[in-house]
Specification:
This protein has 241 residues and is mainly alpha-helical. 76% of the residues lie in helices and 5% in strands. It has five helices and four strands, in the order ααααββαββ.
């Protein structure tokens, strides 16, 4: 197959554009923000699950605390009534003795209930602190997710603009190259990792970077400059400088 030397040079220009497009496409897929956002989503899910457990625990402790407060209040009310009767003196000696005994019993009961209430309050404070910590983490993660999404959108926009510019360059270049040469290039490129044409660099193929043997080099020297070369190793189109 033959093609004008100028068109073969344009094929290298086309390859550079296609390589840039492939590189930009890979960058678009591999933007670090994508993985970071996925990690944030996983952490947010875990935080939400833990918050649900903590909220249930917090509600249970709040119920226990209200119950304990009511118990203390009831005992205190009973003590106040008994003490009021004792202070009034409107009771028989036996009744006064019973009231004094009951006040002593209630005093001990109230102290025990207050100790239990204090333990529940401490537990409540501990659970509430953990809840507040998780909510703070959740807010921080949501803020970070928002910032990452902004960065991701900006990154996508930048790369897509670059891709569109390169695609426009490609569309402008294609009509300048013989269709048969482009078709051969596309066929090779599709089966060779996106590289269909390469420059001959010294005695090496710029595609596979392997040295061209002496016999092949001598053969190439005797060929018409318009003869389209193929690397014996990688079979890519080989363009002489």
């Amino acid at each position: 197959m033959k093609a004008p030397v100028a068109q073969q040079s344009l094929l290298i220009e086309l390859q550079l554009i296609d390589s840039a497009i492939l590189h930009a496409t890979n960058r678009l897929k591999a933007l670090p923000e994508r993985e970071q956002i996925s990690a944030i989503h996983a952490r947010l899910k875990k935080t939400a699950e833990e918050l649900a457990v903590i909220e249930t625990e917090l509600a249970d402790v709040a119920i226990d605390l209200r119950r304990s407060e009511n118990d203390v209040e009831q005992v205190a009310d009973r003590m106040a009534k008994d003490e009021a009767r004792l202070a009034s003196g409107n009771a028989s000696p036996k009744e006064l003795e019973q009231l004094q005994h009951e006040v002593q019993t209630l005093t001990k009961r109230k102290a025990d209930l207050e100790d239990a209430e204090l333990e529940i309050m401490m537990r409540h404070d501990g659970v509430k602190a953990r809840f507040d910590e998780l909510k703070s983490d959740e807010v921080g993660l949501q803020k970070l997710e928002f910032e990452l999404n902004v960065r991701l959108e900006n990154g996508i926009t930048e790369i897509e603009n670059e891709l569109n510019a390169k695609k426009d360059e490609r569309l402008a270049l294609l009509p300048k190259i013989d269709l048969a040469l482009v078709e051969l290039y596309e066929k090779i490129r599709s089966s060779s990792g996106g590289l269909g044409a390469a420059l001959m660099v010294g005695i090496n193929c710029g595609g596979c970077n392997l040295a061209i043997n002496a016999i092949e080099l001598e053969r190439i020297k005797g060929l018409d400059p318009e003869e389209v070369l193929r690397c014996e190793e990688c079979r890519r189109i080989l363009v002489r400088p």
